[in-house]
Write a structure and sequence with these properties.
Layout: H1 9-18, H2 22-28, H3 30-39, H4 41-52, H5 56-59, E1 61-64, E2 69-74, E3 80-83, H6 85-91, H7 98-110, E4 112-118, E5 124-131, H8 132-135, H9 142-150, E6 155-160, H10 166-175, H11 180-189, H12 195-202, H13 206-220, H14 225-236, H15 246-254, H16 258-268, H17 273-280, H18 284-298, H19 303-321, E7 324-327, E8 336-340, E9 346-350
Parallel strand pairs: 1-7
Antiparallel strand pairs: 2-3, 2-6, 4-5, 5-6, 8-9
Helix pairs in contact: 1-2, 1-4, 10-11, 10-14, 11-12, 11-13, 12-13, 13-14, 14-19, 15-16, 15-19, 16-17, 16-18, 17-18
Length: 351
């Protein structure tokens, strides 16, 4: 027997749809939806009709791992009002970081902005900022939401770094069926300068490490170690309804020129500089020069770092374009598995 909800489905859910938060409406009021299928089917049909009329570009959502977010709230005077543990560990005080201050200024002028932030250890991390009205679509802690609600001029500043969350790397490696050694080496490659450094970090010989990484690449379907990193990060970053054009991401977040962005987009998708040059109909030396320029703008000098930033910045750009962003539910029973077919396709299943 469905539990009596005590309120009208049409009033409650319609109000949440009107707020532009369709996913939250379904999650928060699932019992009402379930009960109404028996008690008030006409009202349910009317609500679903309303939902079908939503602009799809505004009705979709991005699903991200909440543990990969670092959050700060900054006042209109530039003073830091609140940070969570992750943000403090990664960046310290955003008021002292020129890149963070620039991102905050852009958000105060335009409502939201994407860019790159420098962590306390010198690494580059994808970031974004938005004013209170824009930021309410993000999965922020209650303390952050309360501060934003108190003053619409305040800004939420986010850092997004799933590559720094070991549990996410382990989960992605498990989904691809990697062995414990392959998993540890793949995780080390996310930020190690190269395979030799990854082998030293894991504590194995270089030949052992090379054999293990070759095995991991075969299972995942990666040609190079940078492809291995890219495919792992795709799993670690969450789900996007329609991933943005990487060229747009590089222009918006990295400050690349359109030509640099096009070359970098091919490279980030797994093409070599030579293959990218063929695809663009230009000289390989031109592509290499464009890649060198965008590496300098991003503050990286390794292809794996660039691929990591491309994946993480792409998620933040998706966040700015979809109706809302939802944090993954922790502790779901079961395990995601991905199997590589002989034709190169991957099949996902949950056991």
């Amino acid at each position: 027997m469905p539990r009596k909800t005590g309120y009208s489905l049409s009033e409650v859910v319609r109000s949440r749809l009107a707020d532009g938060r369709p996913v939250e409406a379904l999650i928060d009021h699932f019992r009402a939806l379930e009960a109404s299928a028996l008690r008030e089917p006409e009202a349910l049909a009317a609500v679903l009709e309303d939902a079908a009329c939503l602009d799809l570009s505004e009705a979709l959502f991005t699903l991200i791992p909440g543990r990969a977010l670092g959050v700060a709230i900054v006042g209109s005077d530039g003073q830091t009002l609140w940070t969570d543990d992750a943000f403090r560990a990664w960046f310290g005080d955003p008021a002292e970081d020129p890149a963070a201050r620039r991102l905050l200024r852009l958000a105060m002028r335009g409502g939201q902005a994407s860019g790159l932030l420098e962590a306390s250890d010198g690494a580059v991390i994808a970031g974004c900022a938005a004013t209170g009205v824009m930021a309410r679509r993000w999965p922020l802690p209650a303390e952050a939401l309360a501060l934003l609600a108190a003053d619409p001029r305040r800004v939420a500043l986010l850092g997004f770094a799933p590559s720094r969350v070991s549990e996410l790397a382990a989960r992605a490696a498990e989904a691809f069926g990697l062995t414990p050694l392959e998993s540890r080496l793949a995780e080390a490659l996310l930020d190690a300068p190269g395979l030799d450094a990854a082998a030293d970090r894991v504590g194995v010989g270089r030949e052992t490490a090379r054999d293990a990484i070759r095995g991991a690449q075969r299972k995942i379907g990666a040609r190079r170690s940078s492809d291995l990193v890219r495919l792992l990060l795709d799993m670690m970053c969450g789900e996007q309804p329609e991933p943005p054009d990487l060229a747009d991401v590089f222009v918006a977040a990295f400050g690349a020129t359109p030509a640099e962005a096009r070359a970098a987009a091919h490279f980030a998708r797994g093409l070599t500089a030579r293959e990218a040059a063929v695809a663009m109909g230009t000289a390989e030396s031109t592509v290499r020069g464009q890649l060198k320029a965008i590496y300098a703008k991003a503050g990286v000098n390794k292809s794996r770092d660039f691929v990591r930033l491309a994946a993480e910045a792409g998620v933040l750009v998706s966040m700015s374009r979809t109706a809302e962003t939802v944090a993954e539910v922790e502790g779901l029973a079961g395990r995601l598995r991905l199997v590589l077919r002989s034709d190169g396709r991957r099949i996902a299943f949950w056991d």
